[in-house]
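Figure 2 data, in text form.
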Amino acid sequence: MDRTTCAEFGFEPGTDAFAQCMMDVTQQREMLRHEERLAQQARISAQNREDDRRRELYRALSVQRSGDKTFPVCGAGSGGGIDVRSGTWFGPNCRAR
């Protein structure tokens, strides 16, 4: 594909200009891949921060509802998680024990 690209630019195979074109095209592709990897890492980091924020909110809400009998006690199916510090479950619509 790179050979075709360089030939379409008018460079003759076997010349120094053609070789330089091939190197330039390869470097550009590698730069794009690197930028795509960085963008993917940024998206993953942003998603992880959002997930952490949501878990902290659910944990706080569950603790605030502690003792409120209108909410069920949180469990594995509560849609939140387990607080490894206290060993208790938390979720968006439940209460801590």
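Caption note: The mean pLDDT is 94.
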